[in-house]
Amino acid sequence: MYVCGVTVYDECHLGHARSAIVFDIIRRYLTYRGYQVNYVKNFTDVDDKILNRAAEESIPWKQVTEKYVQAYYRDMHRLGVTNPDIEPRATDHMTEIIEMIQSLVDKEHAYQVDHDVYFQVSTFASYGQLGRRKLEDMQAGARVEVDPRKRDPMDFALWKGTKPGEPAWESPWGPGRPGWHIECSAMSIHHLGGTFDIHGGGKDLIFPHHENEIAQSCAATGQGFSRFWVHNGFVTIDEEKMSKSLGNFFTVREIFDKSNCSEAVTAETLRYFLLTTHYRSDVNFSNQGVSEAKAALDNLYGLFQRLQEPAPQDVNEDAAIQPRFTQFAKAFEEAMDDDFNTPKAFAEFQQLRTEINQMLVLGLSDSSRKQVREIFRRCGAPVGLFQLPENEWVSRPLVFGQASETMQGEKKELTDEWVQEQIQHRAQARSQKDFAAADQIRKTLAAQGIILEDRPDGTTRWKR
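The structure corresponding to this sequence follows.
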C-alpha cells in the first residue's frame, strides 16, 4: 500500500489527521485479517511551498522540511497512528526519478523544452480513467498553467529547470528539480514494484495528481499501476473544505493544546469522531460532534469500569454469552469487510454495550466479564479504540479553548453530598415529568465535570 503523504512546510491540520487515521485503520484491519502489509507513505520534501516558507522565515529550505517532519511525527504519535513500514523522501530518490523521466523521454511519452521536461498526455490513450473524465472536459475545467512552450495545455512537468536561489540536482536536461507527480511514481515503484495493491490519498488528489501518476507510471513500465484506489473525503467547517489556503482549519497541535483532556483520551475521541462517518464521505467538524463522540466513548469505558466490579456470588457461568461474542465478531468483520464501514462497525460495538449492560443488571459472572473486555479490546484494536486501561479514561466533558486548570479548580469545590443532592432533585423532577428541569440539572452537573449514568434498573450512577 502506497499513500501520498504530506508536504512538509507547515503544521498538520485535522484534514491530514483524518487521512492518516483512515489509512492507519486500513493497514490495521488488513493485518487483523491475516494479510502481510507493506505500507509506504512518503514525505514531499522539495516543493514551491517549502521554498516559499524558507524565504518567509529566512532559513534554509532543509531546515523547514526537518522542522515539519518532526512536527508530523509528534502529531501522529499523539493521534495513536502507527508508523508506516517505509517513509521515503523525494530528495533521497533523485536517481530513480531521473531514470524514470529518461525512460519516458526514450519512449516518446515525454519531451524536453529548454531545461524542462513535460509528459505528453496525448500519448496515453486512457488518461482520465481514474476520475472518469474526458480529456476535453479536463482541458476546459482544469486550472492549467499557461506555458506556450508545451505541446498541449494538459501536458505536465516531470522536470523543472533550476531557477536562481532554488535547490537543484544534476540531470541529462540540466540542473533542476522534479515535478510533484513523478516523485510519487518513482518512490512507489522503487519500493513496491511496477504494480502493487493499494494506492491512497485524499480525494482532492484524484485529479490531477493520481491521474498523472497513472499515466506516467503505466507509460514507463508498460504495466498496470495500482489495483485499487482508496480516497478519503474532506474534513469541512460549515460544509466548506478545511484547508490552509482558506484559513479555516484547526491544526492537530491546537486541538490537543486547547482540549482539557489527556493526549491518549483525545486520540481515541478524535478517532471515534472521524470514523463515525464513512471514510469516503466528507465529515463536518464541530465541537458538538466531537463531544458526542466523547460521550459515546464515555459510555463504553463506563461499561469497562463496571465490568471490573466483582460479580454477585450466586451468579453461574453464562452459557449463552459465547455465541453472542461469535455473532458480534462476525458482524464487526462483515462491516469492516464492506469497504471498511466503520460507522456500521461502531454501531455493533454500541449494540453489544447495550446488551452487556442489561446482562450486568441480571448478573454476569467474573469469567464472562473478562471475556467481554477482551472482545472489545480485540475488535477495537483494528480501529485503534478501547486500548486504554479503564482507570486512565477521563470522563469529564471535552472543552476546546478552556484551560483545564479552571475545570480542575471548579471540581475541587464540589462535595459528594452536593452532587448526590442534585441527583435527588433531578430524580424528583423526572418523577413529576418535569423533564426540562431534569435536563437542566444534568447540564449543570456536566459543566462542573460530573457525568451521570442512568442504569436500566432506574438508579443513577455518577462520576467525576
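Confidence is low (pLDDT under 50) at residues 401-412.
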